[in-house]
Amino acid sequence: MLKFPKAYYEHKQVTAAEVEVPPAELVNQIADEAVATDSPTADIDKPSEVAQRLDTSWLPFAAKTYKISADLNDYVIVNIPICPSDIPNRNGVGFPLAELIAYQPPPIARLTYKAWTGCPVHLEHDNEDHEKAIGVIFDTSLRVMKGYGKDKHYVVYGLIGIDKKKDPETAAKFASGAMNTGSMGALADYFTCSVCGHRATDNQFTNCAHIRSTKEVNWRIMDIDGRKVVAFLNAHVLSPIEYSCVADPAWATCLTEMVLAK
Ligand SMILES: [Zn+2]
């Protein structure tokens, strides 16, 4: 069942028409600039480095909101992938690079992938109540996915903090490496077909021939003009909301995401 954080659901006002993605010819250039900009802090994996190299002055305030610790030393810090660009997940939803690097107007007011910073960390997408958070995302960074797709795919990494006091069990699993995967949560304003670009809705009868309903798992390999292509949904106008620790991630590369249609 899809869930929305109540606060977000009630207040999100940005509409698709207000967000423009960068033109295709500039997307990789902007992404490479973002990778370079992030690189000085992309390798952080210790609480001491978080304190030295990032602005965490907001943590005491986030702590009050999420009911988590205000002390950085209470966190297990892990730097892990939260979302690849352009590759569909097991639910058949892909996140175009152009969307991840688009600078959005308020209330996002930053590059989209940067907006996971400050979002809560939950267990198993139990995200309706932000006071159930077990941690927080300290930072995100964009990296090139080396050796895949001619280095034209990118991965958003999250600097995830799990509160040892709020959830000792999960924190211990991440600290020992027994758990090192999760699943991001984001809202998407709309979806399009990866093959023909048509807008997709929850009504399968009005959609194009390549995909089904936005409510169903949507990926399949199709033979189009003698060419094998993967048909899936591209998500547009993303609003990051959370990262979840999950026991059973099914993404082939240990990445899963959950995307909610608004
Ligand atoms: Zn189509």
Instruction: Please give the number of β-strands.
Output: 11
Low-confidence stretches: 250-262
Question: What general form does the structure show?
Answer: globular
Number of domains: 1
What small molecules accompany the polymer chains?
zinc ion
Largest sheet: 9 strands, mixed
Mean residue pLDDT? 86
Whole-Å distance between the termini? 14 Å
Derived from helix and strand composition plus strand pairing, the structural class reads alpha/beta
Integer-rounded radius of gyration:
18 Å
Strand content: 25-35%
SSE arrangement, N to C: HHHHEEHEEEHEEEEEE
How much helicity do the residues have?
10-25%
Tally of helical runs: 6
SSE layout:
Blueprint: H1 6-11, H2 24-38, H3 47-53, H4 59-66, E1 75-84, E2 93-94, H5 97-100, E3 120-123, E4 135-144, E5 154-163, H6 168-176, E6 182-193, E7 199-200, E8 220-224, E9 227-231, E10 233-245, E11 255-261
Overview of this structure, please?
- This protein has 262 residues and is of the alpha/beta class.
- The chain has one domain.
- It is 19% helix and 31% strand.
- It has six helices and eleven strands.
- The strands form two sheets. Strands 1, 2, 3, 4, 5, 6, 7, 10 and 11 form a nine-stranded mixed β-sheet that branches.
- The longest helix is centred in the N-terminal third of the chain and has 15 residues, at 24-38.
- Bound molecules: zinc ion (ZN).
- The site of zinc ion (ZN) has 7 residues, from loops.
